[in-house]
Specification:
Blueprint (H helix, E strand, L loop, with lengths): L1 H13 L8 E9 L3 E2 L2 E2 L5 E10 L2 E10 L6 E11 L3 E9 L13 H4 E11 L2 E11 L5 E8 L4 E7 L10 E14 L5 E11 L4 E9 L1
Length: about 220
Protein backbone atom coordinates (compact mmCIF):
# COMPACT_ATOMS: atom_id res chain seq x y z
CA UNK A 1 0.00 0.00 0.00
CA UNK A 2 2.87 2.38 0.86
CA UNK A 3 4.59 1.84 -2.50
CA UNK A 4 1.40 2.46 -4.47
CA UNK A 5 0.64 5.54 -2.41
CA UNK A 6 4.13 6.86 -3.15
CA UNK A 7 3.62 6.28 -6.88
CA UNK A 8 0.33 8.22 -6.87
CA UNK A 9 1.91 11.06 -4.89
CA UNK A 10 4.88 11.16 -7.30
CA UNK A 11 2.52 11.48 -10.26
CA UNK A 12 0.79 14.34 -8.47
CA UNK A 13 4.06 16.16 -7.81
CA UNK A 14 5.27 15.71 -11.39
CA UNK A 15 2.00 16.81 -12.95
CA UNK A 16 2.15 20.16 -14.76
CA UNK A 17 -1.20 20.90 -13.14
CA UNK A 18 -0.07 20.08 -9.61
CA UNK A 19 0.06 23.79 -8.81
CA UNK A 20 -3.62 24.14 -9.69
CA UNK A 21 -5.94 25.59 -7.11
CA UNK A 22 -6.94 23.16 -4.39
CA UNK A 23 -10.68 22.55 -4.22
CA UNK A 24 -12.65 21.05 -1.33
CA UNK A 25 -16.06 19.46 -1.74
CA UNK A 26 -18.40 18.03 0.88
CA UNK A 27 -21.83 16.50 0.49
CA UNK A 28 -24.06 13.52 1.10
CA UNK A 29 -26.39 11.18 -0.74
CA UNK A 30 -29.53 9.65 0.74
CA UNK A 31 -30.20 6.32 -0.99
CA UNK A 32 -33.13 3.92 -0.65
CA UNK A 33 -30.58 1.09 -0.56
CA UNK A 34 -26.80 0.78 -0.74
CA UNK A 35 -26.23 -1.62 -3.63
CA UNK A 36 -22.59 -1.94 -4.69
CA UNK A 37 -21.46 -4.16 -7.54
CA UNK A 38 -24.63 -6.20 -7.35
CA UNK A 39 -24.77 -6.69 -3.57
CA UNK A 40 -27.13 -4.99 -1.09
CA UNK A 41 -25.22 -3.80 1.99
CA UNK A 42 -27.32 -3.19 5.08
CA UNK A 43 -30.83 -3.88 3.78
CA UNK A 44 -32.04 -0.38 4.64
CA UNK A 45 -31.89 3.24 3.45
CA UNK A 46 -28.32 4.51 3.50
CA UNK A 47 -26.79 7.90 4.30
CA UNK A 48 -23.59 8.35 2.29
CA UNK A 49 -21.43 11.38 3.18
CA UNK A 50 -18.23 12.35 1.40
CA UNK A 51 -15.36 14.81 1.68
CA UNK A 52 -12.99 15.33 -1.24
CA UNK A 53 -9.94 17.44 -2.03
CA UNK A 54 -8.74 17.88 -5.61
CA UNK A 55 -5.83 19.69 -7.23
CA UNK A 56 -5.31 19.36 -10.95
CA UNK A 57 -5.47 15.67 -11.86
CA UNK A 58 -5.01 14.46 -8.28
CA UNK A 59 -7.77 13.70 -5.79
CA UNK A 60 -7.94 12.61 -2.14
CA UNK A 61 -11.18 11.73 -0.46
CA UNK A 62 -13.23 9.98 2.18
CA UNK A 63 -16.59 8.31 1.61
CA UNK A 64 -18.97 6.52 3.95
CA UNK A 65 -22.22 4.55 4.01
CA UNK A 66 -24.36 4.25 7.13
CA UNK A 67 -27.60 2.33 7.44
CA UNK A 68 -30.55 4.03 9.06
CA UNK A 69 -31.52 0.99 11.14
CA UNK A 70 -28.99 -0.79 13.32
CA UNK A 71 -27.41 -3.23 13.40
CA UNK A 72 -26.39 -2.97 9.77
CA UNK A 73 -23.47 -2.64 7.42
CA UNK A 74 -21.37 0.48 7.93
CA UNK A 75 -18.51 1.64 5.73
CA UNK A 76 -15.84 4.36 5.87
CA UNK A 77 -13.40 4.48 2.95
CA UNK A 78 -10.32 6.53 2.08
CA UNK A 79 -9.09 6.89 -1.48
CA UNK A 80 -6.46 8.58 -3.62
CA UNK A 81 -6.66 8.89 -7.38
CA UNK A 82 -4.95 10.35 -10.40
CA UNK A 83 -6.44 10.97 -13.84
CA UNK A 84 -4.59 11.13 -17.14
CA UNK A 85 -6.85 13.53 -19.00
CA UNK A 86 -10.40 12.34 -19.62
CA UNK A 87 -9.37 8.86 -20.80
CA UNK A 88 -7.58 6.96 -18.03
CA UNK A 89 -7.62 7.07 -14.24
CA UNK A 90 -6.13 5.06 -11.38
CA UNK A 91 -7.43 4.87 -7.80
CA UNK A 92 -6.23 3.28 -4.58
CA UNK A 93 -9.07 2.63 -2.11
CA UNK A 94 -8.99 1.49 1.51
CA UNK A 95 -12.37 -0.06 2.34
CA UNK A 96 -13.06 -0.09 6.09
CA UNK A 97 -16.13 -1.70 7.65
CA UNK A 98 -16.80 -0.57 11.22
CA UNK A 99 -19.77 -1.85 13.20
CA UNK A 100 -22.13 -0.15 15.62
CA UNK A 101 -19.91 -1.63 18.33
CA UNK A 102 -16.73 0.36 17.60
CA UNK A 103 -14.85 -1.26 20.47
CA UNK A 104 -14.89 -4.63 18.70
CA UNK A 105 -13.65 -3.30 15.35
CA UNK A 106 -10.19 -1.78 15.56
CA UNK A 107 -9.34 0.68 12.79
CA UNK A 108 -5.65 -0.22 12.69
CA UNK A 109 -6.34 -3.96 12.36
CA UNK A 110 -5.65 -3.96 8.61
CA UNK A 111 -5.65 -7.74 8.28
CA UNK A 112 -9.26 -8.13 9.43
CA UNK A 113 -11.18 -4.86 9.03
CA UNK A 114 -9.74 -3.35 5.85
CA UNK A 115 -9.57 -4.37 2.20
CA UNK A 116 -7.26 -2.54 -0.22
CA UNK A 117 -8.11 -2.24 -3.90
CA UNK A 118 -6.27 -0.80 -6.88
CA UNK A 119 -8.57 0.11 -9.77
CA UNK A 120 -8.27 1.62 -13.21
CA UNK A 121 -10.85 3.25 -15.45
CA UNK A 122 -10.79 3.73 -19.21
CA UNK A 123 -13.26 6.07 -20.91
CA UNK A 124 -13.52 6.38 -24.68
CA UNK A 125 -16.38 8.53 -25.93
CA UNK A 126 -19.53 6.98 -24.41
CA UNK A 127 -17.92 3.68 -23.42
CA UNK A 128 -16.27 3.02 -20.05
CA UNK A 129 -14.34 0.14 -18.51
CA UNK A 130 -13.49 -0.44 -14.84
CA UNK A 131 -11.02 -3.01 -13.52
CA UNK A 132 -10.67 -3.41 -9.75
CA UNK A 133 -8.38 -5.83 -7.90
CA UNK A 134 -8.21 -6.36 -4.13
CA UNK A 135 -4.63 -7.09 -3.11
CA UNK A 136 -4.30 -6.77 0.68
CA UNK A 137 -6.25 -6.94 3.91
CA UNK A 138 -9.29 -9.06 4.66
CA UNK A 139 -9.84 -9.57 0.91
CA UNK A 140 -6.66 -9.92 -1.13
CA UNK A 141 -7.93 -11.89 -4.14
CA UNK A 142 -11.20 -10.62 -5.60
CA UNK A 143 -11.29 -9.23 -9.14
CA UNK A 144 -14.08 -7.10 -10.60
CA UNK A 145 -14.67 -5.94 -14.19
CA UNK A 146 -17.41 -3.58 -15.37
CA UNK A 147 -18.27 -2.16 -18.78
CA UNK A 148 -20.67 0.73 -19.27
CA UNK A 149 -22.26 2.82 -21.99
CA UNK A 150 -23.75 6.31 -21.63
CA UNK A 151 -26.62 6.86 -24.07
CA UNK A 152 -27.42 10.41 -23.04
CA UNK A 153 -30.57 10.13 -20.98
CA UNK A 154 -29.12 7.25 -18.96
CA UNK A 155 -26.46 4.57 -18.79
CA UNK A 156 -26.26 0.78 -18.90
CA UNK A 157 -23.63 -1.38 -17.22
CA UNK A 158 -22.55 -5.01 -16.87
CA UNK A 159 -20.19 -6.18 -14.14
CA UNK A 160 -18.57 -9.50 -13.28
CA UNK A 161 -16.39 -10.70 -10.43
CA UNK A 162 -15.10 -13.66 -8.46
CA UNK A 163 -14.33 -14.62 -4.86
CA UNK A 164 -16.29 -12.25 -2.57
CA UNK A 165 -18.67 -11.22 -5.36
CA UNK A 166 -20.10 -14.71 -5.97
CA UNK A 167 -21.57 -17.42 -3.78
CA UNK A 168 -19.15 -20.12 -5.01
CA UNK A 169 -16.10 -17.92 -5.58
CA UNK A 170 -16.06 -18.56 -9.32
CA UNK A 171 -16.02 -15.72 -11.82
CA UNK A 172 -19.53 -14.72 -12.91
CA UNK A 173 -21.81 -11.86 -13.91
CA UNK A 174 -23.11 -10.13 -10.77
CA UNK A 175 -24.20 -6.64 -11.79
CA UNK A 176 -26.44 -5.72 -14.74
CA UNK A 177 -28.33 -2.46 -14.67
CA UNK A 178 -29.59 0.73 -16.14
CA UNK A 179 -29.54 4.11 -14.43
CA UNK A 180 -30.59 7.68 -15.01
CA UNK A 181 -30.65 11.02 -13.22
CA UNK A 182 -32.42 14.36 -13.32
CA UNK A 183 -32.49 17.65 -11.45
CA UNK A 184 -35.69 18.67 -9.68
CA UNK A 185 -35.92 22.45 -9.61
CA UNK A 186 -37.75 23.91 -6.63
CA UNK A 187 -36.67 27.54 -6.95
CA UNK A 188 -34.14 29.57 -8.92
CA UNK A 189 -31.74 28.96 -6.04
CA UNK A 190 -32.41 25.34 -5.10
CA UNK A 191 -32.23 22.23 -7.28
CA UNK A 192 -32.31 18.68 -5.96
CA UNK A 193 -30.39 16.02 -7.96
CA UNK A 194 -32.34 12.74 -8.20
CA UNK A 195 -30.91 9.44 -9.44
CA UNK A 196 -32.35 5.97 -9.95
CA UNK A 197 -31.20 2.52 -11.02
CA UNK A 198 -32.62 -0.93 -11.58
CA UNK A 199 -30.01 -3.60 -10.89
CA UNK A 200 -30.03 -7.36 -11.49
CA UNK A 201 -27.56 -9.80 -9.97
CA UNK A 202 -27.96 -13.00 -12.04
CA UNK A 203 -25.56 -14.95 -9.81
CA UNK A 204 -27.60 -14.43 -6.63
CA UNK A 205 -30.91 -14.04 -8.53
CA UNK A 206 -31.55 -10.65 -6.87
CA UNK A 207 -33.25 -7.56 -8.29
CA UNK A 208 -32.93 -4.06 -6.81
CA UNK A 209 -34.65 -0.76 -7.56
CA UNK A 210 -32.64 2.09 -6.03
CA UNK A 211 -33.39 5.82 -5.92
CA UNK A 212 -31.50 8.59 -4.18
CA UNK A 213 -31.08 12.32 -3.74
CA UNK A 214 -27.88 14.34 -3.37
CA UNK A 215 -27.12 17.34 -1.17
Amino acid sequence: MLKIGMVIMTLFLLSPKSTAQVELNVGADLMSRYVWRGTDFGGSPSIQPYLEMSAGNFVLGAWGAYTTNLPGAQEADLYAGYSFGDVFGITLTDYYFPSDDTLSVKYFDFDENHSLEISGTLTIDKFSLLVGKFFAGADDKSLYLEAGYDFGIGNVFVGAGDEVYTTDGDFGIVNIGIGTSKDIKFTDYFTLPLSGSIILNPESESLFLVVGVSF
